[in-house]
Amino acid sequence: MEIYHFLDTHGIEYERYDHPPVFTCEDVNRLVPKLPGRKTKNLFICDNKGKQHFLVTVPDEKSVDLKSFGEALAVKKLRFASADRLQKHLELEPGAVTLLGVMNDGTRQVRVIVDKSIWEADALQCHPLVNTATLVISLDNVRKFLDATGHPATVMDVPARD
Question: What is the pTM of this model?
Fold first, then answer.
């Protein structure tokens, strides 16, 4: 798979754990053994007109307040992007949204937003573009990955729903 080639070529170290397909954070908690690193939830969202796209990484237990988040980004009416947009921009299927998906955004149309609490973890758990494995990658190597793809992260306290 080309994600492993990309990681290896750029000297990005990872630990790989295979598991049954998972589609939700609840599936992960039920089907994946306890792994090192911070569990994440990744959202692919866009503005109402579909002109701006965002890949948002938050703690797995956080529910994002899209209205407040849009205000924080100075973007009107954020919404979840369609499966077609997900395929077009990140070449991913629903259920496999991952920070590593920006590897497929060669035109750099997707802005990466990472919750501040995630950016303070030692390591992150990320799907390798499919939902049948999880990679544990140190935060330094996540930064190296984002640099290699040309996707600097905007780190902020992503607003949560009450």
Answer: 0.93
